[in-house]
Amino acid sequence: MHHILRVMGEMFPDAHCELNHSNPFELTIAVLLSAQCTDETVNKVTATLFQKYRKPEDYLAVPLEELEGDIRRIGLFRNKAANIQKLCRLVLDEYEGEIPQQHEELTKLPGVGRKTANVVVSNAFGVPAIAVDTHVERVSKRLGIAKPDDSVLEVEKKLMKLVPKDEWTVTHHRLIFFGRYHCKAQNPNCPVCPLLELCKEGKARMKPAARSKAAPKKTKTMSKG
Fold first, then answer.
1. Among the options 80, 115, 141, 158, which is catalytic?
2. pTM score, two decimals?
3. What angle do CA 178, 179, 183 make, to 5 degrees?
């Protein structure tokens, strides 16, 4: 694990949360929107969304249909729009309009699961956490940190055990960057991967390439006429 952390740190020293936000409330909304959607698409939507809606009251001041239209480019937009309004109502009623800083309180908010809560506490409030998204899960399993059939929670627990607590948040970001820009779901960059020796899947991918390079070239023989 120390070797993995060192290599990823060298590859992505500036890894960070790529969801644009300026406060904990905006980050919570952005992460809620990012489920089954790329950060790039979320940032395009929130560029105008966060100008129109600046606080929980703003989201409750419009009909649900209007909010749905504002986030229509996001997957599952109807469900997410409903959750945003429910979240805003609860934040106003129970937390005086502020996003709670405690993990257990965050997970009580509509549309906020364990992963979202981990992202919010670590990025907005500086609490060490590892949020396991599709990139973190894929990379952890490919590199043998977790077993192929481990649940998301099991992956998180194994990472928390292996990684020093003060490195949880930065490791989360570096795992995401490694999975997003290098070890992609399709066409991972195995030929130049510095962690190939730890990856059974990668070594299996490279075997056909190695065999084709090692195969002797057939030479044409000229027959005497």
1. 115
2. 0.86
3. 90
